[in-house]
Design brief:
Layout (H helix, E strand, L loop, with lengths): L9 E2 L4 E9 L3 E8 L4 E8 L5 E3 L2 E3 L6 H19 L9 E7 L2 E7 L3 E3 H8 L4 H20 L2 E2 L8 E4 L4 E3 L6 E2 L29 H17 L6 H7 L12 H10 L11 H9 L7 H12 L6 H20 L8 H10 L8 H8 L2 H21 L4 H11 L29 H4 L4 E5 L5 E4 L5 E6 L2 E6 L5 E5 L2 E7 L2 E6 L2 E5 L10 E2 L4 E9 L2 E8 L4 E7 L2 E8 L8 E6 L5 E6 L3 E5 L5 E5 L8 E4 L5 E6 L2 E6 L5 E6 L3 E7 L5 E7 L4 E7 L5 E5 L8 E5 L4 E5 L4 E5 L34 E2 L11 E3 L6 E3 L1 E3 L3 E2 L13 H15 L2 E2 H11 L7 H16 L3 E4 L2 E4 L7 E3 L13 H14 L5 H7 L7 H15 L1
Parallel strand pairs: 45-50
Antiparallel strand pairs: 1-2, 2-3, 3-4, 4-8, 5-6, 7-8, 9-11, 10-13, 11-12, 14-41, 15-16, 16-17, 17-18, 19-20, 20-21, 21-22, 23-24, 24-25, 25-26, 27-28, 28-29, 29-30, 31-32, 32-33, 33-34, 35-36, 36-37, 37-38, 39-40, 40-41, 42-46, 43-44, 47-49, 48-49
Helix pairs in contact: 3-4, 3-7, 4-6, 6-7, 8-11, 9-12, 9-13, 10-12, 11-12, 15-16, 15-17, 18-19, 18-20, 19-20
Length: 935
């Protein structure tokens, strides 16, 4: 050790001879050494705070370390070593000895030959499904031993998992480990970004086995995807998605990882044993995927005829059914076989991963499975002598100790190949009256108006209105985020509000405040009433009815999880149905009742596009290249086909005969047209201005828009006579904030507690005890939130609580924070706001403010777009106090009082606000604010 004279060369009277330095951290040094007594290599870990020196009198500590602090650290170091020495697991590094010498302490551990998991991943790439499952079991077993001893590792990551030469994992480096007893105890902050759970970013729990399980799952996720999991704090606030584990990995493995990676500790498995139970699949998959994987493995070399394939299907299905029941069914006749196969139909969903793996599609695979089962039953009726041998195979396949070894049914199980070189005719050759206009303007979104020859497109944040026949531009509007158009104008989302404009680009309505900035709109108009639906950027979904200047809300809902957040929405041609497209599902609402009629989804399949026919009888969903057409009435799949490219932005023609959409392959994007009845591609249009970004159909199915970043293609599929765009009336005059009528909207599920009237509240009120009506004062609307399905507010997702808070502020803002919290607590049928709930709602308020949903001004929560508060009479609400009125509203009320009555005092101001009596303290407050207002 000539390069390290300050470190010991021998210990314990020469028994341990230091060979070389292995590593050094903030509190310790690790050496490779030789045990002369037993003639073997060991690892020695020395407690050695950074900056220390070895001196003849003992360890010299750096200046920042006191003797008491080091003695405390020394005691913990020795105590934890003694605890680790008790571990009896091949997957936890073994401690042989611990002793004090040279003024510090040393731990003697086994020397392991191999490499870390991180080194293995760098050398060979992600782990295979079999190895990852085995490694997960072994490491969970290691954590069981550690947690049973009352310890947490607290730093599980690929660098702290050592792989022996046969890839057996061993958990190492317990330098950050701590005892845990109380889940809310304080612990030092030691973590590795991407692998540490949210609770490790704070000094206080909850700490426990779920803390280590999160890190273990993050490590395994990294090991099979090669992608670093997102920072836990980022996931906590932004819900950033995790890297997807391929379906070739066992369902139990994927399910265990997702469960252990829940952001909240309470949602994770409570123990390593619970993690193992998820890992093994329990009663959820029962080996279904393993059966299919074994079939596929053998299928590479074995080609079987249809009867053998059918037999294997029946064998696999009955094997899983038998595992579920714990016994093989009693089958002595083909009739009993038929009954057993029908009874086993409820385990088909367990094969979804396998069907996708084998066929490339759950839908087509399920249909072929049913055909094979029926064919196999018919075969066994003709050959009942084969029943005995089949039952023998079934008994073996249904073994509860190991998966069955099955032969493979051959190439029929392979996914169909894609059409890479498909040549399709152009739109010009399919439609004889086809006409194309190319405009030198790009757009990311576009659409047509209902019943009039207007079209719109959004370029960046600027909206342009064009004539859908001539292509002439008629108006422009800046700062537009989303648009929808009907025959009486365009509804636009801009500056956090909804507003109607004419086809020349002039506003023709006052803005309607929306608590969550709208990013998607849909509109339909019929019988003089406009239906408007909006989605906010954080998942708030609202529907409105507009008749003349009257706006009423039909419903407003807060979306609680990212999987449920809609990304687009469409009305059917008759306005009776509203389709909501989310990342994993498509939901259809009945617009009159607000009830959900159907939800369409494929397990594990993302939705890239959706459409509904004009008559509302069929819904289409795209899942990349897979396109599925569903029956609206029954909810069943009608047909499916594989498109030549990954599809998005689907649309049906007016008569439902054609289906169109944008398709993306590795080289380009194009507009495709299919026959809706068969899925056969009919035509393709590839724009010359770059990748296609947006497509829309309109004018009763006779016109198409295809836009890129640089140009817009306006396509007419049939002759269209020119009609001028309608003039919709005089634009509205912009009103100053203090004179703007009340535009707040209370959803149907959020009713005002007072009998204050409809949603378009009167902008006047009577003074208490008087018949005088005062312009500019309106009744205070006290929101009653919809009752939540759970009383456990602390476990409610932050997004759901944030949306409820936004609804309160939308109706009551400016509202005192205390009152807003009380509304949310009452919605969960709770009695009071405790300290824990208050802290939770403080976090919700902070998030809502950061996202621009609300504005926090001292103790009051404001609408982000509100500058001057309205004056509101609180005489009809139960809980009222001048303390709950913000200074700004009192100042506005004081100015109004002086306008009504020169020389008005605090009493008149208080009466405008609904308070007939004033305490001396409150009178003084109003007087002070009135003086400030005059100054």
């Amino acid at each position: 050790m000539k390069d390290m004279p300050e470190h010991p060369q021998t210990l314990q009277g020469g028994r341990y001879q230091v060979i070389r330095l292995l590593g050094q951290g903030g509190f310790g040094v690790t050496y490779l050494a030789r045990d002369a007594l037993l003639d073997r290599q060991v690892v020695i870990k020395e407690l050695f705070p950074q900056g220390s020196l070895h001196m003849p009198a003992g360890l010299q500590l750096p200046p920042q370390w006191s003797g008491d602090a080091f003695d405390n650290l020394l005691g913990r170091f020795v105590g934890e070593a003694r605890m680790l020495a008790k571990f009896k697991s091949p997957h936890v590094v073994r401690v042989q000895d611990v002793f004090t010498e040279l003024g510090t302490a040393f731990i003697i551990m086994d020397y392991l030959e191999g490499r870390t998991l991180m080194q293995r991943l760098r050398d060979e790439g992600p782990l295979s499904p079999a190895l990852s499952l085995r490694m997960a079991r072994h490491l969970a077993q290691a954590l069981t031993v550690v947690h049973d001893a009352g310890l947490l590792h607290r730093d599980i990551k690929p660098d702290n998992i050592y792989l022996l030469q046969d890839d057996t994992p061993v958990l190492i480096d317990f330098g950050a480990s701590r005892e845990y007893a109380d889940s809310n105890q304080q612990m030092s902050v030691i973590l590795t970004h991407g692998f540490a759970p949210p609770e490790q970013y704070g000094g206080t729990g909850p700490f426990g086995p779920p803390t280590d399980l999160y890190a273990l799952a993050a490590t395994l996720l990294f090991a099979v995807t090669g992608k670093l999991p997102p920072n836990a704090v980022t996931r906590l606030h932004d819900q950033e998605s995790l890297p997807a584990v391929p379906s070739t990995y066992a369902p139990g493995f994927r399910r265990a990882l997702l469960a252990a990676l829940e952001v909240r500790a309470i949602d994770r498995p409570s123990s390593a044993q619970a993690f193992v139970e998820l890992l093994e699949g329990g009663l959820d998959d029962l080996g279904a995927l393993q059966l299919v994987q074994r079939i596929l493995e053998a299928g590479a070399t074995t080609a079987l005829h249809a009867p053998e394939r059918q037999r294997l299907w029946a064998l696999a299905l009955l094997a899983v059914s038998s595992r579920r029941d714990g016994q093989v069914p009693r089958i002595q006749h083909p009739d009993e076989l038929r009954y057993a196969l029908k009874r086993s139909a409820d385990v088909v969903p367990l094969f979804h991963d396998g069907l996708e793996l084998a066929y490339g599609s759950v839908i087509s695979g399920t249909a072929k499975l049913q055909e094979d089962l029926e064919a196999f039953t018919a075969h066994m009726f003709d050959h009942p002598e084969q029943l005995g041998s089949f039952l023998g195979e079934l008994t073996k396949a249904a073994s509860l100790t190991s998966p069955a070894v099955l032969n493979a049914p051959g190439p029929v199980w392979q996914a169909p190949s894609t059409q890479k070189s498909l040549v399709l005719p152009s739109f010009e050759s399919v439609f004889k009256d086809f006409k194309l206009q190319t405009l030198p303007v790009g757009a990311s979104h576009s659409g047509f108006a209902q019943q009039v020859q207007a079209a719109w497109l959004i370029q960046g944040s600027d909206l342009r209105i064009i004539h859908a026949v001539s292509g002439e531009e008629s108006g422009r509007i800046a700062n537009v985020h989303a648009a929808a158009a009907v025959d009486n104008g365009l509804w636009l989302a801009l500056n956090g509000a909804l507003r109607r404009y004419d086809f020349q680009g002039h506003p023709i309505s006052q803005p309607l405040d929306f608590p969550d900035h709208p990013v998607a709109l849909a509109a339909w108009r019929g019988q003089g009433v406009t239906q408007l639906a909006a989605i906010g950027r954080h998942g708030l979904f609202s529907r409105f009815n507009v008749k003349g200047d009257q706006i009423s809300a039909q419903d407003t809902s807060a979306v609680s999880t990212r999987e449920q957040v809609p990304v687009d929405l469409f009305y059917s041609a008759d306005g009776l149905l509203l389709l909501l497209q989310a990342a994993q599902s498509v939901t259809v609402l009945h617009t009159k009742t607000g009830k959900i009629l159907r939800t369409f989804h494929l397990s594990g399949q993302a939705i890239t596009g959706a459409a509904i026919t004009a008559d509302g009888k069929q819904v289409c969903t795209a899942h990349g290249r897979l396109v599925v057409v569903w029956d609206m009435l029954s909810g069943k799949e009608l047909r499916s086909f594989r498109a030549p490219a990954a599809m998005r932005q689907l649309f049906f023609s007016a008569n439902g005969a054609y289906l169109g959409g944008i398709g993306e392959d590795d080289r380009t994007t194009s507009l495709y047209l299919f026959k809706a009845a068969s899925g056969q591609p009919m035509a393709r249009s590839t724009p010359s201005g770059g990748h296609a970004l947006s497509a829309a159909i309109g004018l009763n199915g006779r016109a198409l828009i295809l836009s890129t970043a640089h140009q817009l293609n306006l396509m007419h599929l049939a002759p269209l006579p020119y009609h001028a765009l309608p003039q919709l009336g005089m634009p509205v005059r912009e009103m100053p904030p203090e004179a703007t009528p009340d535009r707040s909207v209370t959803p149907a599920s959020v009713q005002p507690a007072s009998a204050a009237g409809p949603l378009s509240s009167p902008a006047s009120s009577a003074l208490p005890g008087s018949t005088l009506t005062v312009a500019g004062v309106r009744p205070y609307q006290e929101v009653i939130l919809p009752t939540q399905s759970t009383t456990n507010l602390l476990n409610q997702p932050l997004d759901a609580l944030e949306a409820l808070m936004a609804l309160v502020v939308q109706t009551e803002g400016p509202v005192h924070r205390q009152e807003a919290y009380r509304r949310v607590v009452q919605a969960h049928t709770l009695g009071k706001v405790g300290s824990q709930i208050g802290a939770r709602l403080d976090l919700v308020t902070q998030r809502a403010a950061q996202r621009g949903l609300i504005r926090v001004c001292g103790d009051f929560l404001w609408l982000s777009s509100m500058q001057t508060p309205p004056v509101r009479n609180r005489s009809l609400i139960k809980h009222r106090s001048l303390t709950l009125v913000c200074d700004e509203e009192i100042r506005v009320a004081a100015e109004l009082a002086r306008t009504l009555m020169p020389g008005a005092d605090a009493s008149i101001t208080a009466q405008l606000l609904g308070f007939s009596k004033l305490s001396a303290e409150h009178r003084k407050r109003i007087d002070t604010l009135m003086i400030q207002e005059r100054i």
